[in-house]
Design goal:
heterodimer, A: 184 residues, mainly alpha, 79% helix, B: 258 residues, globular
Chain lengths: 184, 258
């Protein structure tokens, strides 16, 4: 009997292991073959004005927290509405995934930009983390209590990161800047 | 213990492959980047030579003891090679990526938790309890290696950390070999110590390791694709961007919703 349990477990283990390995191997291969243009095409259009409105409610242009009394005037429902609800959150999450891939692209092909690529990757992962928390809270019905903690912070991080990225591309004279600007 | 023609052929092939791979590692200057992997290959070479002389000139019991000793050292070195690969992948800037270390340690813990019951369930048909522990230990290592390899693959894809060409090739070879070892060890544990089955599985395992070495020789001989150069001005801008983003993030992390 124990032999049978062992055989069953071994087959299950090997099937799972091979399946997972194949999935991630193919994903890594796809990612390695992607071009910069191909990556940017994956970005989903987000209304930048609304993102800016949420970000500027919390921080000043310089990135410092706003000292005035009007700071944090947006309540959770206003932020939720400006973000476009769960769909907006998912778009934000998908764009972050593209930014993670963009960082991987930089690390792979431009080792001299390793430090900035790593910083970009960490930022994108941080936003992904905040968005993931929000999605989890939405699924368990605790969105209201978690929203204030994560949503605005995620949007502010996203806003500044993409703004810096756009500035970089703008200065470098990258041909796809208009597309990038409209997506981010 | 009698060696068949196939055994002799595999042994001779291994005897040729190991120094060839070492030559590639030193000639192409890969040994500097992968010192543990190079040590591992050198160890396999020494093992092949020493075991051959023990087989030819010493009693059978000595050969069995020596091969067990070498197998244990082999497993330890394989784990160290995997760790060396992890150092290359998860420390892109020379220090562990901030978000990776805990997940990596968690992956290792989960791997142990999954591997232990599998090794416990295995019922090796051996003459002594000590031999059974040894067989289970070898199986445990094979399961752990394959899990860690797949775990690292998944972790790097999720975290967006790319594998550089040669690191990826070494890992792929080692990962594929460890999965073959799990298959052969599982069959061996299930079917028992039938001499014919044991011989077939041992040949299969050796063949897998030789294919792996052949793959490494071919892949490590080739140069990695050349990095694409960035203009100096772009590089300066990128560093400026990094400083700005780091400042932004520090401020954002510090602010509190009043």
């Amino acid at each position: 009997m124990r032999d049978l349990y062992f055989a069953g477990l071994a087959v299950l283990f090997l099937a799972t292991l091979t399946g997972v390995a194949l999935h991630y191997f193919l994903r890594a291969r796809r990612s390695a073959g992607t071009t910069l243009e191909g990556l940017l095409k994956q970005l989903i259009w987000i209304d930048r004005d609304k993102i800016e409105a949420i970000a500027m409610d919390a921080v000043a242009e310089s990135g410092e927290p706003r000292p005035d009394d009007n700071a944090f005037s947006l309540d959770s429902s206003a932020i939720w509405s400006l973000l476009g609800g769960l769909e907006g959150l998912e778009a934000l999450e998908k764009n972050c995934r593209v930014l993670v891939d963009l960082a991987a692209y930089l690390q792979r092909w431009h080792p001299e930009a390793l430090v900035v690529a790593e910083q970009l990757r960490l930022n994108a992962r941080e936003i992904e983390w905040h968005v993931g928390r929000l999605k989890g809270a939405a699924q368990t019905g605790n969105l209201q209590s978690s929203f204030g903690d994560y949503a605005q912070r995620a949007v502010v991080t996203y806003y500044f990161m993409t703004r810096r990225l756009l500035e970089l591309y703008d200065r470098s004279g990258f041909a796809g800047i208009a597309e990038l600007q409209s997506a981010l | 213990m009698q060696l068949t023609g196939l055994d002799r052929f595999l042994w001779a092939t291994g005897f040729c492959c190991n120094p060839l791979l070492l030559l590639v590692l030193f000639r192409r200057d890969r040994a500097r980047s992968f010192p543990i992997f190079t040590t591992f290959i050198a160890f396999i070479f020494v093992k092949t030579v020493v075991l051959y002389f023990i087989y030819r000139f010493l009693p059978g019991d000595d050969y069995i003891s020596a091969s067990r000793f070498f197998l244990i050292a082999d497993e330890i070195l394989q784990f160290l090679v995997l760790f060396e690969i992890a150092l290359h992948v998860f420390r892109p800037t020379g220090v562990w990526a901030r978000d990776v270390w805990k997940t990596f340690a968690g992956t290792a813990c989960v791997s142990v938790v999954v591997a232990l019951p599998m090794a416990w369930l295995a019922v090796p048909s051996t003459a002594t309890p000590a031999r059974a522990i040894y067989v289970r230990g070898v199986f445990l290592c094979a399961v752990l290696m394959s899990e860690l390899f797949v775990g690292m693959l998944a972790l790097s894809a999720t975290e967006g950390l790319p594998w550089k060409t040669h690191v990826a090739r070494i890992a792929q070879g080692l990962g594929a070999y460890s999965i073959v070892c799990v298959v052969t060890d599982s069959i061996s544990n299930y079917l028992g110590n039938e001499p014919h089955v044991f011989a077939v599985l041992a040949s299969l395992r050796t063949t897998a390791s030789l294919v792996c070495e052949g793959y490494w020789i071919a892949m490590l001989w080739q140069e990695a694709p050349a990095p694409r150069e960035l203009p100096e001005s772009m590089l300066t801008q990128i560093y400026a961007l990094q400083r700005q983003v780091a400042d932004d993030l520090t401020r954002i992390r510090d602010w509190r919703r009043s």
